[in-house]
Amino acid sequence: MRLWARMRELLFPPACSACGALLDRPDFLEGRALCRACMQEWERQKDEPCEICAKPVRLCRCTTGDMEQYKCEAFCKLVYYMHGKREPVQNRLIYAIKQERTHRTVDFLAKELAHSIRALLLEKHVSLENAVLTYVPRATAARLEYGTDQARELARALARELSIPVLPLLERIFGMRRAQKHLNSAERMKNANKTYRVRDCESGKGKTVLLVDDIVTSGATMATCARLLRRAGARRVFAVAVASDDLQKEPKNKK
Ligand SMILES: [Zn+2]
Ligand SMILES: [Zn+2]
Question: What value, to the nearest 5°, has the Cα angle with vertex 167 and ends 166 and 170?
Fold first, then answer.
């Protein structure tokens, strides 16, 4: 295993997940997925202020209207996704984990998110023993196309970081027939409602469920899944994502 990791390092020298520059060995060994310049920009993006609570986004817990309605209590995220752009470092990381096979970017993001989750659980007086992870399952077609389910991989990496279980509590009934981004709020909820169901009712009962996705757009999917989980007996549900692309609450593009 270790030999294979060495060989892979030789064959595919570790490059920055955002700009592709080769990583310095110390950065790589510390599990960073970004070069120095992109890391600086990443840190800056995590400090962008929330327009509602005015805290840096990495500390913001604000939920979307949909989440609030379905009692998804808190939404923990690291950065704002910049809609319609390809260049920003956070956007590139989101693209990277959608097709990554090495897990380096996923592991890096899980490390970053684990800090936020620990802080969130402290704030909400939830002990790690009472928390479990689950994820929003990706459509089979997308999973087959890219060979990965980034929300599941992120949840698994978080489980290793936090030493808590990841449970496949949800499943898709069938692939979403329409892409969420072209729908209005009511249509999105309806669409999401027809897409997911609880797969395992027992193991999440009485627990605080950390519901993981890579990026949250309207929050309709998170809200629907939170409602399903609560109906199945989850005590509380917190949403966790790398990025928030909330079109309702962040209408203007960040600079
Ligand atoms: Zn870079
Ligand atoms: Zn906020």
Answer: 130
